[in-house]
Design brief:
single chain; about 280 residues; Diaminopimelate Epimerase, Chain A, domain 1; 2 domains; 17-stranded mixed beta sheet; two-stranded antiparallel ribbon; globular
Amino acid sequence: MTAPTNDKGRPFTKMHGLGNDFVIVDARQEPFQPSPEALRRIADRHRGVGYDQLIAIGPGEGDFQARLTFWNADGSESGACGNGTRCAAWLMLEESGRPNVYFQSVGGDLICRREPDGRMTVDLGHARSDWREIPLARKSDTRKLSFAKGPLKEPAALSLGNPHVTFFVDDADKVDLAGLGPQVEHDPLFPERVNVGIAQLVGPDELRVRVWERGVGITQACGTGAAAAAVNASRRGLVGRKVKTRLDGGELFVWWREYNHVEITGEVFRSFTGTLAPELLA
């Protein structure tokens, strides 16, 4: 993975899952707790490194090999990141040679494995559909919220360690996600803000999905967003429990298991390694 901190900065690995990109720092030997200002500097794609999320791999407790901490590009902390977890798992499995890895996180415990074809799978835990778990500001039917923003209406909502709403539309690519995404994210109905998914049924058990990520913006792919779209579509009776999602960056496969755990499977890639300059971390 990466070496310990030195006086020249902090080593990191840059990875992506279907274009959803991450800066990953090994913090198992030395803590890494960047300030919101430092996080925003590192996230700057012109003056820093650039990322959708920054991930610190810290020491785990008990049977857990590590603890993951996620931050968004705006400097806020995130409770979960499906594609980022798959990337961190790839690094850990390359290091250990083990078939799986167990992570702790604020959003819950995460179990990851490498598939025979090299793709990475993460079990995101339970899909949480109670309005208080998401959370919402008021009691609601989370299968079909009484909520609208412009042409978007009646989304389904759930949490996978972070809050999501999914709007079902006839043509996902015609939605002005850049304009509507931030309006939905910051609506008072969502006290912790929300990730915004746009989903279109394009075939049997197949969805076209676009996501505005809370604290980031539009991304090439969002693991928990794709999973939320698939589970919400299944809750609406549009698809079954095994769903292929087509995101801008590629395909992610979602399995909503009978015991309510949600797994996502897809490719991950290592882009490069480097060192964060002290000026970025100051």
